[in-house]
Amino acid sequence: MILTETAICFYSKFNDKTLFGKSTRIKVPYTSLTMLKKEHGALMLPNSIRIACNVTGEDGVEKEIPHVWTSYINRDECFQLLQTLVNSAHTTPAPTVNDSISEAPFSASPSSIARTPH
Fold first, then answer.
1. How far apart are the first and last CA of the chain?
2. Count of CB atoms within 10 A of residue 17's CB?
3. pLDDT in tens, 90-114
4. Least confident of 6-15, 16-25, 102-111
5. CATH topology of domain 2-90
6. Phi-psi group of 91: left, alpha or beta (phi > 0 → left; psi -120 to 50 → alpha; rest → beta)
7. Do 83 and 36 form a contact (C-beta atoms < 8 A)?
8. Distance CA 55, CA 118 (A)
9. Which one of 10, 24, 39, 90 counts the least CB within 10 Å of its CB?
10. What is the domain partition of the chain in residue ranges?
11. Helix (H) or strand (E) holding 79
């Protein structure tokens, strides 16, 4: 699992149908999450995180898709970071065109550019 500022990402060379074959790639934007919870994995070890997200299928019908990640060494720390990122995604407004434009134009004079000796 890879956590970015906007999404949970996952990549594996394996998939759920065969041991080898097509790779598995998952990208779940935090804003599409409908569930986030801690779970117990095999042998009742507290090492799993379950999420669910809404996905619109090719038929136009929205459905909830679950994902479970297991075998965390520090599941609670990862879960806390995940909660923080999800909460931030839901409270941070989407950037607008004006937000990405600086008030003052950028200029650099030749004397302001750092030079390093070769």
1. 41
2. 8
3. 886 655 544 444 443 333 333 333 3
4. 102-111
5. PH-domain like (2.30.29)
6. alpha
7. yes
8. 54
9. 90
10. 2-90
11. helix 75-91
